[in-house]
Amino acid sequence: MSGLARMIGQRLALGAFTLLVVSMVIFAAIEALPGDFAEAILGQGATPEAVAAIRESLGMDRSPVERYFAWLGGVFSGDFGVSFNQLSFQSQYGQTGERDVVTVADQLAPRFANTIFLAATAAAVAVPLALTLGILAALYRGSIFDRAANVGTLTSISSPEFFVAYILILFLAAANPVFPSISKIHADLDFWERLYRTVLPALTLTLVVTAHMMRMTRVAIINLLASQYIEMARLKGVPRWRVIVRHALPNALAPIINVIALNLAYLVTGVVVVEVVFVYPGIGQMFVDAVKLRDMPTVQACCLVFAAAYILLNLLADVLSVLTNPRLRHPK
Amino acid sequence: MRTGRPLVTIRDLKIEGLAGEDWLPIVNGIDLDLARGEVLGLIGESGAGKSTVGLAAMGFTRDGCRIAGGSIEFDGIDLVAASEDARRSLLGRRIAYVAQSAAASFNPAHRLIDQHTEGPVLHGVSSLQESQEDAMALYARLRLPEPESIGFRYPHQVSGGQLQRAMTAMAMSCRPDLIIFDEPTTALDVTTQIEVLAAIRDIVDQFGTAAIYITHDLAVVAQMADRIKVLLKGDEVEENDTRAMLAEPQEDYTKSLWAVRSFRRPEQPPAGQGAVPVIAVAGVTAGYGTAPDVLHDVSFDVHAGRTVAVVGESGSGKSTVARCITGLLPPRGGEVRFNGEALPAGYRNRSKDQLRQVQMIYQMADTALNPKLRIRDIVGRPVQFYRGLRGAGLRRRVEELLEQIELEPALYIDRLPSELSGGQKQRVGIARALAADAQFIICDEVTSALDQLVAEGILKLLDRLQNELDLAYMFITHDLATVRAIADEVVVMKDGFVVEAGPKTEMFTPPHHDYTDLLLSSVPEMDPDWLDRLLEQRGVDNIGEAARGRID
């Protein structure tokens, strides 16, 4: 088991390094975009003096390298900075930083909680659904059910998610007003009301991620059906469903877990489009707005959250895969 | 033992297998009768249909096979007509199966005892508690170490011979009327095999279970079966009581099977004093990665025109010696000399000429030949690489090599490996080794994946080539019959040490090293009383792993 602890340690260190690289790439990418925050926020009223004033107040007259390391130094001391957007209003109203400053972290936290809520709702439906469909498709492979499940999930994964979202809105919000088409979420809502307003975006995400997980479950199980221990189980008179669930599935878990992790990571990072469509107040919305405004501290923070989600979920998948292998769990 | 109505009656059984889009016959009308408590041996070469018939006796066909005709009756139940559920209620409960590779047939994800109790509990034969206690009793009966706790291990934590016995225990878990043993000892080392054979026979006797024992090894079936049925390409050749069958086989095919172990290479005169060996392994110590040494001070010589057989069981280090000689695994100590000159340890540091001199022929010709290349390229590549021949010269040389291995060049030069039989693939493997004009060839279990008749053809070919080209062979094998047939000298290895080395005749005459004695006495003979005698002489506790553990 010390091998596992070492693996986790190594991967976390590597993950931290990856985050550093991600932050550099993001910073460079924003630098490379035409225009900057000052021009974006002033829009039509961008006189050279106003632009220069805002730039100076944001410290953007310094060199990019200097600004990057200033930001990085803040991160290491736990300060992700303050959104330019917050600062700009202060400078416009002639106020100084003495007012209560809303930091990026403060802004991000509720948004992040919303996104996690959406992702968790989608995952709570999609993962059991995908596993069940995959197992059933493997059990009845070649049957009408198998083909229908494949066609259905492939159709939903092949359509762009905004398209799926609008179709759902059309049928479940416009034609039959069952669910709200706009997910107005705020802190005062109770759990059920919040869940009710999350249904459509969660359903959209479910349709998008189920296909992948279901097909991997099906294939991973079917690949094992030619194994001798499966034949042995059948020759012991074990019923078909039990052959699949008890004898094939435990050995098929590693690839399935990996695909689930990739899809869960996608639920966190790939929600951008869905959140925009449903005006869902999650991290994706915030990210899109921040990119439009070239709001560097916010973009950076969002990206780091996305990257960390990917890294942690993949690490979790690898750890679980190791744990499903009896050879590693019970060494000789 | 043969009383009352037969347990199994098979009449005119026809089975077809799907090949591409066509159904091809695999079994063409076989009759089989088995009485309660009787053991029937099914023997034949690969493709004879013996496993297919064995599974059919359970009412089971593999995917891609179907029963095309005939009837299978088990204790009055028509298995062909029976419903899926009716058949399933028999499987495991009244008919059980023991597979060739226990390692592959136990589910790696579950403990042995959980797999053992699954059948009895599912079929409602006994409760979980009863079944667990019974499993421990069976483990003890089958002489497994620590019968109380071994069941709580996972398959990978248990050795191959132990797994095979645990699988026999699992087959017994519902006390079936019939067990199908499908080559249960083929994958085991010879000393382990004895232990498993003795255990199987003991437990089948004890419970009066009928059995169909499938194998290609005549000497094994002679110990196990009351009657023997010989199959060839889906047809029955003949059937008779074991003793009668061994004494007087009627059909030519059966006689040829009996005679197959007759090939003997004439003994070569010993190498002269002071002759320089082609390959000298001198004090080689080696190991993988940072792990401890797996070879300890191994030394032996191989002279031109002579064959040295390196004998030992799995894990004895015989293949590691080959890796050291070829330079794939640089030794940690000692050296390998070629014609008196030390070879660089790693193959990367060897010159093309040094590489050329050491060639290998592999056990699995299937995986050793690139399936996408034609024979001309497989054999032509070393010709081009080592001799620099091209165009017409290259083609002439490849044709010459194919003639040497007795494959008609015009017919075979443009074929893919998948268009050859197992024996022909192994011949191409030989041609590839010859293409380098090597003086020394390592043959790594080259015949163990082949049927006996085909294997004999390969041995004869290797013998002829050795005489013509004055080759030196190092023959890695665990099969002592092959050693007898082809070796001049024998090196016996155990746990990375050479325990005995010398000329073949000395090796096969007592006194032996204890381990050599165990190896030699563990080779089954074509005498139905051999196993009884051996158990009487050595004692039931002095065979297999137990005996091996006691030898240093």
| Largest interface (CB < 8 Å) | A-B, 23 and 31 residues
Helix-strand category of chain B? alpha/beta
Fraction of residues of chain B in helices?
25-40%
The shape of chain B, in one word, is globular
Low-confidence stretches of chain B: none
Seen as an oligomer or otherwise, the chain set is heterodimer
- Rg of chain A from C-alpha positions? 24 Å
Count of separate DSSP helical elements of chain A = 15
- Tell me what portion of residues of chain B adopts beta-strand conformation: 15-25%
Total DSSP E strands of chain A: 0
Number of helices of chain B: 23
Characterize the biggest β-sheet of chain B.
Answer: 6 strands, mixed
Main sheet properties of chain A: none
Average pLDDT score of chain A: 83
Number of strands of chain B: 20
Shape of chain A: globular
Radius of gyration of chain B: 25 Å
Tell me the distance between the termini of chain A: 13 Å
Task: Give the helix/strand layout.
The complex is a heterodimer of chains A (332) and B (552).
Chain A: H1 2-32, H2 37-42, H3 48-58, H4 64-76, H5 84-92, H6 104-139, H7 144-158, H8 161-175, H9 191-224, H10 228-235, H11 240-269, H12 272-277, H13 283-292, H14 296-324, H15 326-329
Helix pairs in contact in A: 1-14, 6-7, 6-9, 6-11, 7-9, 8-9, 9-11, 10-11, 11-14, 13-14
Chain B: E1 8-19, E2 22-34, E3 39-43, H1 50-56, E4 65-74, E5 77-78, H2 84-90, E6 95-98, H3 102-105, H4 112-122, H5 128-141, H6 160-171, E7 178-182, H7 190-207, E8 210-215, H8 218-224, E9 227-232, E10 235-241, H9 242-247, H10 252-258, E11 279-286, E12 295-302, E13 307-311, H11 318-326, E14 333-338, E15 341-342, H12 352-357, E16 358-361, H13 365-368, H14 375-387, H15 391-404, H16 409-412, H17 422-434, E17 440-444, H18 452-469, E18 472-477, H19 480-486, E19 489-494, E20 497-503, H20 504-507, H21 514-521, H22 530-538, H23 544-550
Parallel strand pairs in B: 3-8, 3-9, 6-7, 7-8, 13-18, 13-19, 16-17, 17-18
Antiparallel strand pairs in B: 1-2, 1-4, 4-5, 9-10, 11-12, 11-14, 14-15, 19-20
Helix pairs in contact in B: 4-5, 4-6, 6-7, 14-15, 14-17, 17-18
